[in-house]
Design goal:
The protein has twelve helices and seven strands. The protein has a seven-stranded mixed beta sheet with strand order 3-2-1-4-6-5-7. It has 364 residues and is an alpha/beta fold. The chain folds into two domains: 227 residues, Spore Coat Polysaccharide Biosynthesis Protein SpsA, Chain A; 120 residues. It is elongated, with a radius of gyration of 24 Å. 38% of the residues are buried.
Length: 364
C-alpha cells in the first residue's frame, strides 16, 4: 500500500512535454524512502504537456496533473498546485531541469526541523552559482534582488529564486494576502506573510535548459514591477488600475500626436482630425492594456477583434460620462479645472470597471 505523500513537488508547465518524464525520473532517484508526489500544473500547453503528464500518471500514481484552461501565470499556477495537494511539505521548482533536484532531500530534511518555515534553493550563498548566465543577466538579477529585499520581511540571499520548499501551515498564513502577480512566487509569499518566516537556504548551481525554450519574454520585467507595486500599494489601489491609468495617460500623448499630425501637418478639418485622433488613442489604449494591464488574460485572434469593438463602446460611454459630470459641476459654479478633473476621474473608473467586465472577462 502506498503511503500518503509527505512531500509534494509542484511544477508549473507550459510547453515542457520533453522535460516532464525526465523530471519525474530524476525526482524518483533523489527521494528514495520519502513518500512524495509531483503535481504538474499545466496552462493548456499547445505541445500537449498535460497529455504527456497524464500518460505518466497512468503508470505512476505519484504523478498528478492539473490542467488549467483560459488562465495563465506562473505564480497562480503554483498556488493552485499547492492547494491541490494534502502534503504537509511542498516544493516548487521549474520543469526545465535548471533547478538541481538533488538538493530536494536536503531541503526536506532541513524543513522538518521545527525552527524553519521555508527553505530556499539559493544561487548566491557559498556553494551556489548562476551557471552559464551572461554577466549582463547576472547584473539584472542582482538589481532585482536588491529591490525585492525592500519588500520581504525576512533576509534572503536569493528572493528571486523559483526553487523553494515550504511548510503548508506557513503557506496558508500567507495565502489570504498573495498577489499571484507575475512569476516570483517566493517573493510574493515572503512579502505577504503576516509575521516574518523562518528561512534556511541550501546552495545550488543554476543549470542550462535541456529542452524547449525559455518562457521568460521581454515583459517579465513589467510583471515584476507590477508585483512590487502590488505589495507596496495594492492594499490601497489595485495595481491593475494603476496600470490602466498609466496607459490612459499615454493615450493622451498619443491623441495629441495624432491630432497634430492630422490637423497641423496634413491640413485636415479639426473635426475629422479630432475623430481620427480619438480612434487612434482608444486603439492604442486597448492594445497596450491587452499587452500589459491584462497580460494574464491577453486576447488573441477573433477575441482580439471583438475586444477592440467592446473597448470602443465602453470608452464611448465613458466619454459621455466625462462630459456630463464635468458640465454639471461647472454649471453649479465649480472651478473649471476641478470640473474637468472630476469628469476624467469618472471616465477612467468607468472604463476600467466596464472593460474588465465586458472586454477582458473570460467567457465561461
Amino acid at each position: 500500500m502506498m503511503l500518503p505523500a509527505q512531500l509534494a513537488i509542484v511544477v508549473p508547465t507550459f510547453n515542457e512535454r520533453q522535460n516532464v518524464p525526465l523530471l519525474v525520473e530524476l525526482v524518483g532517484k533523489t527521494l528514495p524512502g520519502i513518500p512524495w508526489e509531483i503535481v504538474f500544473v499545466d496552462d493548456n500547453s499547445p505541445d500537449a504537456t498535460a497529455e504527456a503528464a497524464r500518460a505518466l500518471a497512468l503508470a505512476d500514481p505519484r504523478v498528478r496533473v492539473l490542467q488549467r484552461y483560459g488562465r495563465r501565470g506562473l505564480s497562480s499556477a503554483c498556488v493552485e498546485g499547492i492547494l491541490a495537494t494534502a502534503a504537509p511539505y511542498v516544493a516548487i521548482m521549474d520543469a526545465d531541469l535548471q533547478h538541481d533536484e538533488t538538493i530536494l532531500r536536503t531541503m526536506y530534511e532541513r524543513l522538518r526541523c521545527d525552527d524553519v518555515d521555508l527553505v530556499v534553493g539559493s544561487r548566491y550563498i557559498d556553494g551556489g552559482g548562476m551557471g552559464e548566465w551572461s554577466e549582463s543577466r547576472q547584473k539584472m538579477s542582482r538589481f532585482a534582488t536588491k529591490l525585492a529585499l525592500h519588500l520581504t520581511k525576512t533576509p534572503i540571499s536569493d528572493p528571486m529564486s523559483g526553487f523553494m520548499m515550504i511548510r503548508r501551515d506557513a503557506f496558508m498564513r500567507s495565502l489570504p494576502y498573495l498577489s499571484t502577480v507575475g512569476f516570483k512566487i517566493l517573493l510574493d509569499i515572503t512579502a505577504s506573510a503576516p509575521t516574518p518566516l523562518r528561512v534556511a537556504e541550501v546552495p545550488y548551481t543554476f543549470r542550462a535548459r535541456q529542452h524547449g525554450e525559455s518562457k521568460l519574454d521581454s515583459l517579465v520585467l513589467w510583471e515584476y514591477v507590477q508585483l512590487l507595486l502590488d505589495k507596496a500599494v495594492g492594499h490601497v489601489v489595485p495595481v491593475r488600475f494603476l496600470s490602466f491609468a498609466l496607459v490612459g495617460g499615454l493615450g493622451v500623448v498619443v491623441h495629441f500626436a495624432a491630432l497634430m499630425l492630422m490637423f497641423k501637418l496634413l491640413g485636415q478639418p479639426f473635426g475629422m482630425a479630432q475623430t481620427v485622433a480619438t480612434v487612434v488613442a482608444i486603439s492604442s489604449n486597448f492594445f497596450l492594456n491587452n499587452m500589459f494591464t491584462y497580460r494574464d488574460k491577453r486576447l488573441r485572434g477573433w477575441a482580439l477583434a471583438r475586444g477592440w469593438v467592446s473597448f470602443n463602446l465602453v470608452c464611448a460611454f465613458g466619454a459621455a460620462a466625462n462630459v456630463g459630470v464635468a458640465d454639471w459641476l461647472f454649471s453649479h459654479r465649480s472651478y473649471w479645472a476641478l470640473s474637468a478633473l472630476a469628469g476624467i476621474t469618472v471616465s477612467v473608473v468607468w472604463n476600467y470597471a466596464m472593460s474588465a467586465f465586458f472586454t477582458w472577462q473570460k467567457k465561461r
